[in-house]
């Protein structure tokens, strides 16, 4: 078993102890004080030496134990201790590794001094009370400050040695603040205001030492920050690199936990108790800036990220953290980034050693509806935030539609879209910044709310009291506008033929459809109604017919149609591979159209009609090709009643051959 000696007493030392505990390592942890031992919290079966060792005692320990490695994770300002550890390692022939702490981001308004003496010299020229947060070891050096006992308040550890050092330096009990950290920004602000401090003296202890909280608190409490510069560190590695190297060298398993939690609408008070517990126990929080700010009540290390690849890269390159909490807005399972993130976590190096947990939260849907006092059990939901959806058909089909806005799909854009489709009288509700102090909820008709100013990430509830979406195929011919173009009356596939063709196509909800020779758009529109989550491409070479198709589509709320002006197959070459194709007019290019379809690496369902003997002959030849499977031909003739005086006669239409088949990639 490998033997490691760790000099701790810092946050880095605690994390290394927790990581090595329970591993196949014989670990001895050295701390100088009782507080250093208390900081360890969980040291498992590690042996703890609680004593301030001299260099000679270190050398004796290293020679007797014959460690494979000595890790120096002492405080960055403990220069003499580090020199003693390194010297003892050299003398005993023991490998030495220093853990470096990242420097803090010191603001431009802070005053930085290279040592205590220069800091004191400056403070002797300034007025106002001083909060010392540099510890008790060097408190005696500050006793040279003018009016030291009256101006200075020292925050030290609640230990007898700390209190004795403060008393010996000349501080009265009322000026000694004996507390154990970590200290939040709020706690620092309260302390500064309580003693009316104009100066806060600190070391550059990094994020691990609470420097960020001190700096932000000083700014908000109108106190000036005095930073005693950190001694230069010229060699060593950071904590993350150290853990990675330990895993590789000693074949250790770094088992970590990743919790993906829904934090609710935005206010931390709306979080579940389980979510709050995960945040409290996390080593690092990951998420969007606004979410981190709303829940980071303990000022934990954070990483601001939204994209899954950035999140996963951070998790698997920061070995110093054992518990990550990834924050998702609302509910982790309701239009969140959870499903996008999971494959990245599972596909990264080391994922087999990570436990992944998903915890739900209060969704924006449930929160918004509760505010409106509306039940959401019958609400249909869609997200337009980074997604493409056909909104109008869904509104026509549902009594209540909940919409997550985003990107170009703003509240105003959605209102304009509703107005264009003659739905401006519908009642809508808009929720902005739900759960935050500046939450706002508006309600009214589309016309009334169309021109308001709204947050880009708003939610909407759209009410349609009379949903009347058509669910059957074969719309009456009379619902389509018919017009004459430059070539005469624009052709239309009649209702009965259309119904059978659509039935043979067997469309799916997510189908990608081509309607070649769309004419009035009757087939395209019925395709769009059936494939309400798919896309229809209406290809038409006659500009008059194409304009009529667009007119009919708007009239019948068929929003998910893309109109293509041109002749097949050329106009289809750059279109997405279809799942379903209807050919109503080919302009003599049937063979070329089928050749194009046979080049697509897909299983394509095709239905086409043939009326003339020539087109029937051509289709009979095509269905004999190797790429055509399951061909079926139906000859259909219909008759419609027609008034003849007081009587009605049946007027027969032309016989129509309906060909249906599957097209597979031509391997010849």
Q: Would you give an account of this structure?
A:
- Helix content is 32%, strand content 24%.
- The strands form seven sheets. It has a seven-stranded mixed β-sheet, with helices on both faces.
- The two termini are 65 Å apart.
- The protein folds into five domains: 2-98, Rossmann fold (3-Layer(aba) Sandwich); 111-228, 3-Layer(aba) Sandwich (Rossmann fold); 255-359, Cobalt-precorrin-4 Transmethylase, domain 1, CATH 3.40.1010; 364-463, Methyltransferase, Cobalt-precorrin-4 Transmethylase, Domain 2 (2-Layer Sandwich), CATH 3.30.950; 477-663, Rossmann fold (3-Layer(aba) Sandwich), CATH 3.40.50.150.
- It is built from 23 helices and 32 strands.
Short description:
The chain is of the alpha/beta class. 32% of the residues lie in helices and 24% in strands. It folds into 5 domains: 2-98, NAD(P)-binding Rossmann-like Domain (Rossmann fold, 3-Layer(aba) Sandwich), CATH 3.40.50; 111-228, HUPs (Rossmann fold, 3-Layer(aba) Sandwich), CATH 3.40.50.620; 255-359, Cobalt-precorrin-4 Transmethylase, domain 1 (3-Layer(aba) Sandwich); 364-463, Tetrapyrrole methylase, C-terminal domain (Methyltransferase, Cobalt-precorrin-4 Transmethylase, Domain 2), CATH 3.30.950.10; 477-663, Vaccinia Virus protein VP39 (Rossmann fold, 3-Layer(aba) Sandwich).
Biggest sheet overview? 7 strands, mixed
Strand tally:
32
Shape: elongated
User: Can you identify the CATH superfamily of the largest domain?
Assistant: Vaccinia Virus protein VP39
What is the CA-based Rg, rounded? Answer: 37 Å
Task: Please indicate the percent range of residues in DSSP E strands (runs of 2 or more).
Answer: 15-25%
Strand order of the largest sheet: 26-25-24-27-28-32-29
């Amino acid at each position: 078993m490998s033997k490691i000696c760790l000099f701790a007493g810092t946050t880095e030392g605690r994390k290394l102890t927790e990581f090595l505990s329970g591993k196949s390592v014989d670990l001895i942890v050295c701390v100088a004080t009782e507080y250093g031992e208390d900081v360890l919290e969980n040291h498992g079966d590690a042996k703890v030496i609680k004593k301030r060792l001299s260099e000679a005692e270190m050398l004796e320990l290293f020679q007797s134990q014959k460690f494979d490695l000595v890790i120096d994770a002492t405080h960055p300002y403990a220069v003499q201790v580090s020199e003693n550890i390194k010297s003892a390692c050299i003398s005993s022939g023991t490998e030495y590794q220093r853990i470096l702490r990242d420097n803090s981001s010191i603001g431009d308004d802070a005053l930085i001094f290279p040592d205590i003496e220069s800091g004191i010299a400056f403070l002797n020229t300034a007025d106002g009370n001083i909060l010392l947060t540099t510890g008790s070891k060097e408190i005696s050096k500050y006793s040279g400050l003018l009016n030291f006992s009256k101006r200075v308040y020292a925050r030290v550890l609640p230990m007898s040695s700390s209190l004795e050092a403060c008393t010996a330096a000349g501080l009265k009990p009322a000026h000694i603040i004996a507390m154990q950290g970590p200290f939040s920004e709020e706690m620092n602000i309260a302390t500064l205001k309580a003693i009316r401090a104009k100066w806060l003296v600190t070391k550059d202890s990094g994020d691990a030492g609470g420097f960020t909280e001190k700096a932000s608190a000083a700014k908000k409490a109108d106190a000036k920050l005095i930073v005693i510069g950190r001694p230069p560190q010229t060699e060593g590695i950071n904590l993350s690199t150290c853990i990675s190297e330990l895993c590789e060298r000693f074949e250790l398993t770094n088992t970590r936990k990743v919790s993906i939690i829904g934090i609710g609408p935005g206010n931390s008070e709306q979080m579940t108790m389980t979510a709050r517990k995960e945040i409290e126990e996390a080593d690092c929080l990951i998420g969007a800036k606004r979410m981190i700010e709303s829940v980071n009540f303990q000022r934990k290390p954070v990483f601001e990220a939204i994209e899954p690849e950035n999140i996963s890269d951070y998790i698997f390159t920061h070995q110093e953290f054992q518990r990550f909490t990834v924050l998702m807005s609302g509910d982790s399972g309701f239009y969140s980034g959870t499903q996008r993130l999971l494959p990245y976590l599972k596909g990264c190096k080391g994922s087999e050693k990570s436990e992944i947990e998903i915890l739900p939260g209060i969704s924006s849907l449930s929160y918004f509806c509760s505010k409106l006092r509306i039940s959401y059990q019958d609400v249909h939901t869609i997200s337009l935030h980074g997604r493409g959806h056909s909104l109008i058909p869904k509104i026509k089909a549902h009594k209540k539609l909940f919409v997550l806005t985003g990107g170009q799909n703003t509240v105003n854009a959605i209102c304009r879209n509703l107005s264009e489709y003659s739905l401006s009288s519908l009642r809508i509700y808009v929720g902005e910044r739900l759960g935050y102090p500046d939450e706002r909820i508006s309600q009214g008709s589309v016309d009334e709310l169309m021109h308001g100013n709204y947050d880009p990430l708003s939610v909407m509830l759209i009410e349609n009291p009379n949903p009347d979406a058509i669910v059957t195929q074969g719309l009456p011919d009379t619902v389509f506008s018919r017009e004459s173009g430059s070539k005469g009356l624009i052709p239309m596939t009649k209702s009965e033929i259309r119904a059978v063709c659509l039935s043979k196509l067997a469309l799916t909800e997510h189908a990608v459809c081509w309607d070649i020779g769309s004419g009035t758009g009757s087939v395209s529109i019925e395709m769009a109604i059936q494939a309400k989550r798919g896309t229809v491409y209406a290809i038409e070479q006659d500009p008059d017919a194409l304009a009529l198709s667009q007119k009919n589509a708007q009239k019948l709320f068929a929003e998910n149609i893309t109109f293509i002006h041109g002749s097949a197959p050329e106009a289809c070459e750059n279109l997405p591979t279809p799942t379903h194709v209807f050919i109503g007019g080919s302009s003599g290019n049937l063979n070329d159209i089928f050749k194009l379809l046979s080049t697509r690496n897909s299983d394509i369902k095709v239905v086409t009609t043939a009326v003339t003997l020539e087109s029937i002959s051509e289709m009979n030849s095509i269905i004999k090709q190797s790429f055509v499977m399951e061909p079926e031909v139906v000859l259909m003739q219909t008759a419609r009643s027609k008034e003849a005086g007081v009587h009605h006669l049946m007027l027969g239409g032309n016989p129509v051959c309906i060909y249906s088949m599957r097209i597979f990639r031509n391997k010849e």
